Amino acid sequence: MDNKEVFNKAEFAALLDKAKGNRSINQYAGDTGVSAAHISRFLREMIAAPPTPETISKLAAKAYNEVTYQDLMIAAGHLSRQYDNNTIAYKEDSISYEKPSITKDSPMNYRNKIEAIKNRFKQILLADLYDKPFNWSPEKLEAGVRYPDMILNLQDSEYKRWHFDFKPVRDNRSFLTFDFYTVYGRIAAKEIYPDDKFTIVVNNEEVFHYFLSRPPLSLRANLYVMLIDLDEGKIITEEQISKY
User: What does the pLDDT read at residue 172?
Assistant: First the structure.
């Protein structure tokens, strides 16, 4: 399908102006990370091709007046006006563990909310560690390293290093089939020692039991799964699912 035939420039410009609200173009550009010149050209209907879903995600993330990612995607021609909310007509980067709602969440908003849950995991874990009978210190991860989410160096403990892999699920909405093979595969790809401990941290009881019922059969690692209650701000339980 030719995007120029479905891109409604006038509607997109009106929605973009509404999303900008009372901010200047430069202020909106600063908030979103999209260039002021680019925004200005869309507002003046000077660009024939629609913005990419990535650009729309940035614009929607800082939109005023309840302008949604879905509204902008439809006006840009990336989504049909009649669609099944469970079917997305374009492919963004895969986001594991839960299907985002295109009605409410842009990919950027979704990732920001997932990162907020990961930060909450870290707060709860560190608060709990102060009551533990061993000494610990966080290990500074190398710049650009995104896995694992946290490593602690331990003293006076059964283990010397504790690795954490955060797997948050927002709310109690349905999630996609959990790819536990990828989770286990990433651990298997690391250099593992007998005194290393790996903990997969989740905040959904169904995911927690999913891991318990599907332990790795040949992974040589001291692997645990931990369930955290975000509302209570505490660790519910931690179970070992494999040994070195």
Answer: 53
